[in-house]
Amino acid sequence: MKLPGPSARVSDTWAQQELEALTHAGLRRFLEPLSTPQGAEVVIRGERLVNFSANDYLGLAADPRLVQAAIDGLHRHGVGSGASRLVVGDSDAHRGLEAQLARFKRADAVLLFNSGYAANLGILSALLGPEDVVFSDALNHASIIDGCRLSRARVVVYPHADPAALDRLLSSHPGRRRLVATDAIFSMDGDRAPLDALVEVCRRHGAALLVDEAHATGVLGPRGAGLCEELGLESEVDLRMGTLSKALGCFGAFVATRGPLAELLFHRARSLVFSTSLPPAICAAASEAVRIVEEEPASRETLWRNIRYLAHGLRELGVDAQESSPIFPVVLGEAERAVEAARLLREQGLLVKPIRPPTVPAGSSRLRIALSASHTGAHLDQLLEALSGLQWDRRHVAA
Ligand code: PMP
User: Which residues share a beta bridge with 365?
Assistant: First the structure.
């Protein structure tokens, strides 16, 4: 008897149809393996490129001190954690990192998650149910959107960074529990949430506030603890989620909160309860990253010098660039335009990935420039020079 060949499989047809649709819409993506560590310069298929696409804002991802901490952690704890935290996957390294993050974030309690994605899913689905209402900024990260859906709460999307609109929506949407969720720095736009006003609106309406500090941790605040620190709102925000994967150069995430909420999450957040915990060596490396952020403000200062320099240069090119974060969007419109612009930059040795739907709304495809403290002045000048040569229609460019 002859088994059916691959062409007979119905699932291949599903995949082919959808992939063709993606190709047609200019949304087909390809993986590009690095053959070097993450850094300001990387090599892809033998080509050396200046990298403006990573979230490694402080250049810590390949820092030898983090590498050494991970090696020491590997020798001490082995590779895999072996089980979820609640079974036998807890360790001194997990506990030590949580205690250190609690001090860094000035929080009552900190609970680790396996990724930022898992944290937002776990937090939202643990705290909210069908009788509740979650208010979510229109430009929140996909992990918040998916967490809202998974919670089965009623989801009310409020206009981006608009506390007055949120105020009205809170007035007209009662519920058992109400929670507002926002990115601190919006991942594809680089702007900041109006946290002062959001805190005030939430307090007035008796709603809880979840702030995703994925891109703010290590970047903002006098000690690098984030936007809540910068605005003195650390004790005003119920849940401050942060990642270890961006400025801290590692992997994983955490929530800084109060004791009872942390304990409830520890029991109910399914992405934590039902998933193997982080490898302890990663926790050891993250501890070293937090130590560096706390003790060495110089790299944060370098990052901010780079931000100011690039923002100034972009404004000279007619881009309305802000100085709110290391993320600079250059919005070009249709996906093809962003892909073409990225290709032209690539020809000049610059890696600036185009960002397309579903990551950003249709018609707002863009180049997303992400800066690091490890970029030199020469890297920034090379980028500005290449951008000035791009034949884009400046009237449609926004940052
Ligand atoms: N929140 C925001 C705002 C993000 O940008 C990201 C990652 N891009 C995440 C959460 C998810 O974090 P992780 O990559 O650790 O899953």
Answer: 333
